[in-house]
């Protein structure tokens, strides 16, 4: 074998090793913590990150409720989780986060039939064009306003128990908040194409962060976390993404998208680890805690957003 060939082979091996272990894979969160008697609600728990998280938490003994639009799909996933985990405390419920009536109905049913809510994972979300009947685009309604509504409708339940049973709320967001200064301009716009979608994503993320900050600072035993998974290869990239992004991300996703099994590990840490509590209301990219940028901690921006959120969702107060 020539020297050149040998060098090439060594480089290929090193790059391959790095790619596999640090790009496609990553650290595993090691913990044998059990969650018997704890209740977790995961929106959109029938696919992607929500589904692998639901499976893991069921294996730890938690009571797991998954909720999304497609009940038939969720019921199949529920059966799959019960079969694999041996835990029968798994429930599938229906909610359409594009419709506030559906969110209200769901919250009522959950409140009346579930004794506790220890972990709320606001995970459902997808990136599509289009408007809702509220005059706000679908993205903002699904990924912010309905989370605002649902979380507030279940807040009393969480507050009541939080002295004895600390509550954690985790909101799935993206890095894009860094590029949004305001939240309002993107709400009423039907996003078309890449730039619009980015603006809307960024503003939704920022709104979520401001909401989580307010909740966390109410000091009622509820801690909140904004989680950006980074790039994880989920079903959503094939089905739930707007057209231009699907084209653009197709190859990079296969090359660089993290495998799901590794991508959800940081979520476990945010749910299970005591060390994260001091970062309540803050931002995580994967396992890494990141300081929020100053524009996201601007307290005077919350008041107008809160008013708008009450108005849009029809809540009277929080
Ligand atoms: N994967 C990534 O790299 C990445 C990066 C940054 C942020 N995120 C965020 O992480 C979250 C999960 O992403 P994923 O990639 O795991 O997504 P996914 O596989 O596409 O799953 C999305 C889930 O949301 C549910 N859903 C969609 N629209 C809904 C609606 N109107 N009402 C109720 N449920 C609805 C879907 O179930 P039904 O179809 O049954 O409704 C599905 O369970 C999202 O919020 C996403 O923005 C992901
Ligand atoms: C949270 O928001 C409510 C409603 O705007 C406000 O009254 C309260 O002072 C805020 N709390 C904190 C700690 O920011
Ligand atoms: C904070 O938010 C308010 C209200 O949106 C805005 O007027 C002000 O310019 C912001 N301040 C900074 C430093 O961004």
Automatic annotation (TrEMBL):
Superkingdom in the source lineage: Eukaryota
Pfam families xref list: adh_short
TM region positions: 6-23
The entry's keywords: Membrane, Oxidoreductase, Transmembrane, Transmembrane helix
InterPro entries in the record: NAD(P)-bd_dom_sf, SDR_fam
Stretches of the chain forming a coiled coil according to its record: none
PANTHER family: PHOSPHATIDYLINOSITOL-GLYCAN BIOSYNTHESIS CLASS F PROTEIN, PHOSPHATIDYLINOSITOL-GLYCAN BIOSYNTHESIS CLASS F PROTEIN-RELATED
Name of this chain's protein: Uncharacterized protein
